[in-house]
Design goal:
Distance between the termini: 88 Å
Order of helices and strands: HEHHEEHHHHEEEEEHEHEEHEH
Number of helices: 11
Structural class: alpha+beta
Strand order of the largest sheet: 7-6-5-4-8
Strand content: 15-25%
Low-confidence stretches: none
Length: about 325
């Protein structure tokens, strides 16, 4: 039988698994009787751990308390948290870098040597490129996330991609993170349609609005829905281009914030993208460095022909 202190740590580790534990199950795991489990549960409560008894069959679950209690992590969990904190330290949420570094310092202080070596190895051979661009206030992120969870309307001032200012009233659905940007997918009440909004262009108004009945999502795959919205829906020109490579190959070269890849067959795929500038689209086509056929818009085909002739003339004139 484990000593009392070791048994309490083992009990705490079991309770941190997100499930209900019956007294009999805990007793079997700890190799004690149910009465001892009850006494150990009382000791954890005395130490500040909010252990709740579930109704019906006697059971226990670790709840949320006023303060964050110490957590017990296995080896892989500890490494995952450490790597995540290192990544967050160079992320796109304003002010989170310093907080992540402080949290990482606390974690690394108590990591066993074997785990510290694993974390340091990953860090030593990894170069993180800063995301760049505007960042988002973490308080704003959590407030919008809470409105999504609680089904409460949001009002905010918004600056569109063309610089136009407007005030929006929406029923927030989900936050989507592309790796560089945070977006809100929401039902726009005034426009009676689904919209996507860049979080760094939003200035929320408080308090939140009334509760609403959630609507069916605009797409089962919200990541794909967002990709279509930010790559084609908001722009004056929408291009459809066949790339003569497999969809998997194209997806490795074309970020989802640049275009949407649609498989055609084993050797070809369609790229849907957009821009307010035909010249920019023409540059995209050249930079992809992939065999392709441009279908539309017709204006883009004309721009590429003129650009090709101009570049050819520049070489021939040498």
């Amino acid at each position: 039988m484990l000593e009392t202190s070791a048994r309490l740590l083992r009990l705490l580790s079991l309770l941190q698994t997100p499930r209900d534990w019956s007294g009999a199950e805990l007793a079997e795991r700890l190799e004690v009787d149910v009465r001892t489990v009850r006494r150990d549960i009382d000791k954890l409560r005395t130490l500040g751990y909010p252990v709740h008894a579930t109704p019906g069959v006697a059971g226990y679950r670790l709840g949320a308390g006023a303060n964050v209690p110490p957590l017990l992590l296995d080896d892989d969990e500890a490494v995952a948290v450490a790597v995540g904190l290192r990544t967050a330290a160079s992320g796109g949420v304003a002010g989170i870098e310093e907080t992540s570094v402080r949290a990482l310092a606390k974690l690394e202080q108590v990591l066993p040597n074997r785990l510290r070596r694993r974390v340091n190895l990953l860090h030593s051979v990894t170069v993180t490129m800063p995301a760049g661009g505007p960042t988002v206030d973490p308080t704003q992120l959590t407030a919008v996330a809470a409105a999504c969870r609680d089904h409460e309307r949001l009002r905010f001032d918004y600056r569109g991609h063309d610089g136009a200012e407007s005030t929006r009233t929406v029923e927030p659905h989900r936050l989507v993170h592309t790796g560089r940007r945070w977006y809100l997918v929401a039902w726009d009440v005034d426009r009676a349609d689904w919209r996507t909004y860049r979080m760094d262009r939003m200035v929320p108004k408080t308090p939140t609005g009334p509760r609403f009945r959630p609507r069916e999502a605009p797409d089962v795959d919200l990541a794909d829905y967002l990709s279509r919205g930010v790559t084609t829906g908001a722009y004056r020109y929408r291009a459809r281009i066949t790339l003569h490579v497999p969809a998997a190959t194209a997806a490795e070269l074309v970020p989802p914030t640049i275009g949407v890849i649609e498989a055609v067959d084993d050797g070809n795929c369609l790229l849907h993208t957009g821009s307010n500038s035909l010249d920019e689209l023409a540059v995209y086509v050249g930079l992809f460095d992939l065999p392709c056929t441009v279908h539309e818009p017709a204006e883009l085909v004309a721009v590429i022909r003129r650009l090709t002739a101009r570049l050819a003339a520049a070489i021939d004139s040498r």
